[in-house]
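User: I'm putting together notes for a lab meeting next week and I want to include a structural view of one of the chains we've been expressing. I don't have a solved structure, so I'd like a prediction I can at least talk through. The sequence is below, exactly as it appears in our construct file.
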Amino acid sequence: MLFNSYIFIFAFLPLTFFVYFFLNKKRMTELAKAFLVFASLFFYSWWNVLYLPLILSSMLINFALGKQLSTKAAKLQGSRKAVLIFGIIFNVALLGYFKYTDFFLENFNFVFGTQIELLKLALPLAISFFTFQQIAYLVDSYRRETKEYDFLTYALFVSFFPQLIAGPIVHHAEMMPQFARLKNRLINYANILMGLFIFSIGLFKKVVIADTFAIWVKHGFDNMPSLELITGWTTSLAYTFQLYFDFSGYCDMAIGAALLFNIKLPINFNSPYKSLDIQDFWRRWHITLGRFLRDYVYIPLGGSRAGNSRFSNLFFTCSNLFITFLIGGIWHGAGWTFVIWGALHGIALVIHRLWQSVGLKLPKILAWFITFNFVNFAWVFFRANSVDDALKVIKGMLGLNGINYEQYKFLRSAFRAEALHDGIHIFLYFLAASFIITLAGKTSSQIVKNKENIYYTIAFCVLFILGVFFMSVSKYSEFIYFNF
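Assistant: Thanks for the context. Below is the predicted structure for the 484-residue chain, given as structure tokens.
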């Protein structure tokens, strides 16, 4: 069940909303909570009911481990640490088995010339996200930063449907207390208005902008045997904006849907393509993932204080940065393209840290230009199905195949244009509009802070109608991060 589907918008979401608040109004609080857990698990099982036992067993085991870590009876530091290590290994092993087994076997066969049969495991939906979320819970419990909660509340924390499939990755302290507040059990019309408005912005981003770019992206990456200079750049730029509007659209829809239930999810995007350096980019892009990598990977590795001298500090800082983002790349997918993407960002952050250490600065325009183009270049590996596919696009971007206008012919049919130049113009309009939106526009959270309710209503109606219209003339498409 997709956020951008009719069944979610017109059936699942309103039905879940009304039943949840009806039960709360009748003061059946625990039943309302149980219903929301049931609805979330039903939402999760819509793709494949076989995923259900996996997430349920994961929640049960992690809840038991977290309870053991946080209880006052667990006084022995050694035993608590052993429980934490077991919990982390369990979660990583679960993720690794489903996500990386075939990748490991493929490379083992290649290196040693063996022919071990691949398991061809289906990747369980959302496993990367709920695994990281529960690892964070265990670590926080070990640090005694969690409170005692019953399993039903914990299950709601993990399975709450707006953030279940592709984040944001949330902390227990951000979510659990919100469900316990009495005022959150009552319908809040201001939150409904803001939630519908933010949801509509996300719907518009996904079905109007991202899915339009997807036409060009698929053609350039998957259908064309080679790319020339202009098609190389337009293919990479199309994916750069498709990914942004697809994932930021999902996060807006998640935040909007959660607000209907009086739950505020953390912001995951803050105009990342405005960044003037790669560190700033990661403070703005997929903020909750960056926060997780910082708090639960980078800092435990030693962070920026791992040596006894300035030189050793710098060396270990750079090493920790590289390792952290290499792990971030591997987390996204089982393939060498993701390893390369993570390594590229790790190297970029190392260069930025070295640049900072000597006190050098670039003019803002040049700094933005370098940062944006690096991000655009690295996204090629993120999208490509193989390293060869990525090199195909990069060769085109470097002009190694010259210029060939024949490659634009598909735009005429793709955009239902009467002539080739009309199709090119439509694409260029989308590209220019995307630059303007990402560089000069405000985020959804900024918009709702500065506008009156009447403007929310008008904008909601316009965006919603446009979004539904585009849904009616195109097939539903999954969000990109569903694959991770």
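A couple of points you could mention at the meeting. The CA atoms of residues 210 and 242 lie 4 Å apart. The mean pLDDT is 85.

User: Perfect, that's what I needed.
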